[in-house]
């Protein structure tokens, strides 16, 4: 019996498990292969929904479905937390299971962890829309916010969905206009490097829009500390910025599991950027946010990587040489307001081209979000 | 080779694409005492412009940029 273990039932892990169930159907049915998905949460969470929660357009419940409904019945589903990875003995320890689980091939798809506590005062002073509780608290705060200075600060890089902070600012600008409050609110966007975004074409696009929509842009802005009582942000560069409502993208890190297993620093797994195989251990792969590859931490990346790793694992199972590789393909829809969006696509070493935003692209983004559940099932 | 500068801290950001090396540097500098000499190793050409610009902004001193084959070593002193 060849045992494939996948840790993490988010976008990457779920797509991968379903792909493997499909590709290895004959072997699974013959009892030669076991595909097991181990995930800590009995719900699958589709995080892009959180962007719409602060504006009352979606609820936190819209973002989740029972994982059981999404995973092919040929996959062995285990709801438990993996507490230790032993790549020498090829075993996983689980929180609620006394005996360790052995694997022949392992895929880590444990995602990213938010760490607001890494910056003093941030957890107390800042809001965010990167998780269910944060998004709901921000929704209530925004509903009551009628005047003052709203600051969107990108504190941590890398973070999930590099486009989301820009989208949030453009959406809040539009939302305040619709409610007749824009004149009463000053908007500022801050970014750690010398432009508005890591990718130059997006930085240029966003800077032009910010100017058009009267959004202040602060660059080289690295938050050192937040004073929640005085409502002031202090930066490493020695700047101070006063806010009334702070929406901050908190620092991210990977999983302690990864660090403890010696698979990578800061919890991100060091992998070959094309094969997605861990550099520090045999028969270990990483996909999605946890894999340290030079592209965005995005669901589309997790999805494409899952396809590649499914092919590579299937080849190994069949004793053939794996040839599928990941070329860095990344696709993102970007909201440019409440009813317009654009779309970008790029691979390793390529610069994206930002199209003119349009209403059809906004509907395409919302449509994709709805059809996502089919994607997770491996049907799209 | 730069023999004159012996760094107290070395940051290896080789292989990381822009703005990775700059972010590695900023993260580290936050934790260092004034007077500390840092060596940043990078393979991203952009670092040779981004890093000096940030040092100027943040008030740290650029000591030297050394070019090797497809790699750069940026030396600075924390203020
Ligand atoms: C507000 C917001 C908007 C976004 N918008 C977009 C967008 O428009 N487009 C886009 O492409 N991406 C977007 N993203 C990013 C996208 O959601 C992530 O990149 C994607 O979810 C990554 O998938 P993943 O499988 O790596 O991790 P996740 O989907 O985060 O899943 C990780 C899973 O691992 C499980 N897990 C973790 N540790 C353990 C353990 N020790 N044992 C067992 N299970 C464990 C977790 O419970 C979870 O189920 C957005 C993200 C946010 C926050």
Notes on the protein architecture:
The complex is a heterodimer of chains A (380) and B (79). Chain A has 380 residues and is α/β, with parallel strands linked by helices. Chain A folds into two domains: 2-112 and 254-329, FAD/NAD(P)-binding domain (3-Layer(bba) Sandwich); 116-252, 3-Layer(bba) Sandwich (FAD/NAD(P)-binding domain), CATH 3.50.50. Chain A contains ten helices and 23 strands. Chain A has helices at residues 11-23, 25-29, 67-70, 122-125, 132-143, 164-178, 200-212, 256-260, 299-318, 359-376; strands at 2-7, 33-39, 43-45, 64-66, 76-79, 82-86, 91-94, 97-102, 105-108, 113-114, 148-154, 185-190, 215-218, 223-227, 232-235, 240-242, 245-249, 252-253, 269-270, 284-286, 291-292, 330-335, 341-346. Chain A has a five-stranded parallel beta sheet with strand order 5-2-1-9-20. Chain A has a four-stranded parallel beta sheet with strand order 13-12-11-17. The longest helix of chain A is centred in the last third of the chain and has 20 residues, at 299-318. The two termini of chain A are 29 Å apart. With 79 residues, chain B is of the alpha+beta class. Chain B has two helices and four strands. The longest helix of chain B has 12 residues, at 47-58. The termini of chain B are far apart. Classes of the chains: A alpha/beta (380), B alpha+beta (79). The complex binds flavin-adenine dinucleotide (FAD). Chain B: Belongs to the sulfur carrier protein TusA family.
